[in-house]
Design a protein that fits this description.
Blueprint (H helix, E strand, L loop, with lengths): L2 H17 L3 H27 L23 H9 L6 H22 L11 H13 L1
């Protein structure tokens, strides 16, 4: 970009900025109004359609097999693999915490400027492992 193009861009930008509206009252009001509309639609749908809760519970039945939700499957798998009860806190608290810290720190220990996956082995392997775990 040469000097003439830069000056023309700044001139056009200042004109558009002078004609525009500030973010705070206008965009925030639009977002808040849309959030209210979405909430009203969700509430109306739940009132009209209802929620299927299933049949009545029989407290005398012992045939129920409790299963965890999908986001707890990895913890149950860790508990299945790690047998000694002394290692249960490590399996349920330590390993997930270490994995989350490593995932959070990924941008800090993989600081390469390269964007191609074959030149970023740490990020590529992390992405593949993460996609296979889910």
């Amino acid at each position: 970009m040469n000097q003439r193009e830069k000056e023309q861009y700044l001139r056009e930008y200042s004109q558009l900025k002078a004609q525009g509206k500030p973010f705070f009252p206008y965009a925030v009001a639009k977002d808040a109004a849309m959030a209210c509309v979405v909430m009203a639609v969700i509430i109306a749908a739940s009132l009209v359609l209802g929620a299927g809760l299933g049949g009545k519970v029989n407290p005398a039945s012992t045939s129920y097999d409790p299963r965890p939700d999908w986001y707890f499957f990895f913890l149950f798998e860790l508990l299945r693999v790690i047998k000694p009860s002394s290692l249960t806190p490590l399996a349920t608290i330590g390993i997930p915490t270490i994995c989350m810290i490593l995932l959070f720190m990924l941008p800090f220990y993989d600081r390469g400027r390269e964007r191609r996956p074959e030149r970023r082995p740490i990020a590529t392997i992390t992405g593949i492992v993460h996609s296979r775990i889910r």
